[in-house]
Amino acid sequence: VTGAAGFIGSHLCDRLLGAGHEVVGIDGYVPFYPREMKERNLAKAKASKSFTLHETLIEKADDLPSILKGASAIYHLAAQAGVRASWGDDFAGYVEHNVLGTQKLLEGAVQAKVPRLIYASSSSVYGDVQELPLRESMALSPVSPYGVTKLAAEHLVHLYGKANDLSVTSLRFFTVYGPRQRPDMAFHRFLKAVRDGQPITLYGDGEQTRDFTFINDLIDVLQCSLVQGKAGLVYNVGGGQRISVLKVLEAIASVTGREVRIDRQEGQKGDMRDTLADTAQAARDLGFIPKTPLATGLKAEWEWICS
Ligand code: NAD
Ligand code: UGA
């Protein structure tokens, strides 16, 4: 599991270890957010005898083939995440971690003869389109530099899959939330502000919508994709409905029982207006059915933020 110490990677490690797998994690502790948070994410996995961690940046690792040798599959989750931070000088990090890192990993996987790779792609590869829901077959035109690097890496994954004896599947995750969520993401920021009696920052008019996906639902489908999923295909993974940010704030007031005060700021460059996943393909091939209602997922994240 690359990106093992991150939000999604650490949940995936816990799930795979719980299912009896031996898990090798790779994480370079990119300083996008504090290392201590990532250490906490990985505490449970690190307590397991079946878990090993290699602390390295993929693109800088010269011993990748030996790290990867013997793996039955690679989950490639390591990336510089964050849509709104991907402009300006910081873009270099997105290229290094997301594009160069992915290419280096693919070379290592081929050399180590790993048979399968599952890539964490993103709804951000779509950009703003005329009609919803977003289907895997649609034209892709990202509106953020981050989305461009996620799409470049997705292309690399499928190119290496075709050119080699490597079965690849990409899952396009739609705005994931729940315990351990990254501190730059909306729900984390909103819940922390509410806990601390601070106003939340609202970008734009709040009518933008997202198909928010609860972490456990995503981990279910990641686990299935170890053995299911057609080689070379791409699957959307979304929560099943879209909701505006303003409606999320109402739900937060209801779940937390606290007042939500709003500090309005300008809309952010690179933000998609709306997302909604067509998940028919993931339902068909991966048995994916999102199960967690927003209020349930929000409550779980609220409890984590308050813990
Ligand atoms: P995260 O930042 O919490 O986790 C990513 C981890 O990867 C971090 O611990 C970081 O240190 C590590 N990392 C980054 N680049 C690395 C490199 N080159 N070498 C080694 N380690 C590296 O992010 P997350 O939210 O858990 O996202 C995981 C993956 O899912 C990413 O690929 C992201 O693009 C994708 N994704 C996330 C969401 C979401 O809503 N969180 C949605 C769509 C796609
Ligand atoms: C999220 C992840 O951060 C990306 O890594 C991922 O690739 C992407 O989902 C995806 O689905 O592909 P985003 O949808 O921007 O990106 O997620 P949030 O940070 O949760 O933002 C949701 C909405 O809330 C955005 O419209 C954002 O502008 C808004 N927002 C965010 C605020 O109004 N205030 C904030 O403080 C933060």
Task: Compose a concise summary of this entry.
With 307 residues, the chain is an alpha/beta fold.
Characterization of this structure:
The mean pLDDT is 98. Strand 4 (116-122), helix 5 (145-163) and strand 5 (167-173) form a beta-alpha-beta unit. The strands form five sheets. The chain has a four-stranded parallel beta sheet. The longest helix is centred in the first third of the chain and has 21 residues, at 91-111. The two termini are 27 Å apart. It is built from ten helices and twelve strands. The protein is 39% helix and 15% strand. It is globular and about 55 Å long. It binds nicotinamide-adenine-dinucleotide and uridine-5'-diphosphate-glucuronic acid (UGA). Uridine-5'-diphosphate-glucuronic acid (UGA) binds at residues 81-83, 122-124, 173-175, 185-186, 189, 201-203, 208, 210, 245, 268, 271.
Which descriptors apply to this entry?
307 residues; alpha/beta; 4-stranded parallel sheet; two-stranded parallel ribbon; 10 helices; 39% helix; binds nicotinamide-adenine-dinucleotide; binds uridine-5'-diphosphate-glucuronic acid
The count of strands amounts to 12
Poorly predicted parts = none
As laid out across the biggest beta sheet, the strand order is 3-4-5-10
The mean pLDDT is: 98
Which helices and strands appear, and what pairs or packs with what?
Layout: H1 7-18, E1 23-27, H2 35-46, E2 51-55, H3 64-68, E3 74-76, H4 91-111, E4 116-122, H5 145-163, E5 167-173, E6 176-177, H6 186-195, E7 200-203, E8 209-210, E9 213-214, H7 215-224, E10 234-237, E11 243-244, H8 245-256, E12 262-265, H9 280-286, H10 294-306
Helix pairs in contact: 1-2, 1-7, 4-5, 6-10, 8-10
The protein binds nicotinamide-adenine-dinucleotide (NAD) and uridine-5'-diphosphate-glucuronic acid (UGA).
Uridine-5'-diphosphate-glucuronic acid (UGA) is lined by residues 81-83, 122-124, 173-175, 185-186, 189, 201-203, 208, 210, 245, 268, 271.
